[in-house]
Amino acid sequence: EVQLVESGGGLVQSGGSLRLSCAASGFTFSRNWMTWVRQAPGKGLEWVANIKEDGSERYYADSVKGRFTISRDNAKNSLYLQMNSLRVEEAAVYYCVRDIGWGAFDTWGQGTMVTVSS
Amino acid sequence: QSALTQPPSASGSPGQSVAISCTGTSSDVGASNYVTWYQLNPGKAPKLMIYEVNKRPSGVPDRFSGSKSGNTASLTVSGLQAEDEADYYCSSYVGGNTPSYVFGTGTKVTVL
Question: What are the average pLDDT values for consecutive 10-residue runs of chain B, which has 112 residues?
Answer without folding.
Answer: 94 96 94 95 92 96 96 97 97 90 97 94
